[in-house]
Amino acid sequence: MKDDINKLWKKYVNALENHDYERSLNLMDEMLNVEGLSSKEISELYAEKGKLLRKMGKNEEALKAYDKALELNPNYILAYLYKGILLIHLGRLEEAERVFLKLHELNPSDLVCKYIIAYVLKRLGKYSEAQKIFDDVVERHPQAFIAWLMKGKLLHREGKLKKALECFEKALEINPKDYELLYHKGEILLKLGKYCEALECFKVLHEKNDRDISSLMHIIEILVLLGRISEAREYVEKALKLNPDDPMIYFFYGIILNKLGRYEEAIKYFDKALELNPNFPDAWQGKAVALEKLGKIEDALECYNRALDIYE
């Protein structure tokens, strides 16, 4: 019996490596028909069959295979995991939630399982329940980087910016080289009006990757807010070299020129922004300001009205 299984398994693995899934499936069925296998061994084969069926795009059959594996071995952690992940892939989140809660009962100390449950709850819109999971994780595991990160993202989404910032700062203490996290921190500081601290975050990111246009745009925005116009202009010119088709960059250049009193030049940049995106209300408004300063009131009113139409 064991020799038969071993031979069939080698053939099965070889067929898998050659992407011959139909032959693999036939070999799997042969293995399942070998006499003398224990319930545990049959359960493991059904779980493997489920993985194969998923590769073949036969998702409903894969779920049935996982169910058979769990019927034979109700404590089979990997079968629950495979089934739960497939249900998430299929968008059947309520079912996935039940599967992972059962998995959590079997293995309550598994952080990955907790993270997946929280992810499913978040997808279901059960944000407070997801938050409770992360609260529990960070209380039990203060160095759990992912939990601090995800807790911060949830709080950020709820508009609880100061609490979110605390979570991101805690996560950065654990992993100070996580640049995505530093970006989130910069965004929150910007929203809180802590412009100098936000600027520091985005400048670190820009130094790390000087082609990161998102950080560059935030630097420009903050410098304009701080009134550091000459410095902002230098960064705008860098941004234009990186992405000459981004209307936001031309918009910021127009804003800078407005602040310098160079309204004719500013209009050219607002026009370029509007050429790239005619439904850009801020660019219409910026152009209106420049026209008003030049005494072209009717033209300015027309631009203001275009902006209002888009906002509505």
UniProtKB/TrEMBL annotation:
Listed PROSITE patterns: TPR, TPR_REGION
Q: Would you say which domain of life the source belongs to?
A: Archaea
Name the InterPro entries on file.
TPR-like_helical_dom_sf, TPR_rpt, Ycf3/AcsC/BcsC/TPR_MFPF
TPR repeats: which residues?
43-76, 77-110, 145-178, 213-246, 247-280
The record's section on SUPFAM superfamilies has: TPR-like
Q: Pfam family example for this protein?
A: TPR_8
SMART domains, sorted? TPR (SM00028)
Keyword terms: Repeat, TPR repeat
| Gene3D superfamilies, A to Z | Tetratricopeptide repeat domain
Q: Which PANTHER family match?
A: CELLULOSE SYNTHASE OPERON PROTEIN C, TPR REPEAT-CONTAINING PROTEIN MJ0263
Q: What is this protein called?
A: TPR repeat-containing protein
Kindly list the organism's lineage. Archaea, Methanobacteriati, Methanobacteriota, Methanomada group, Methanococci
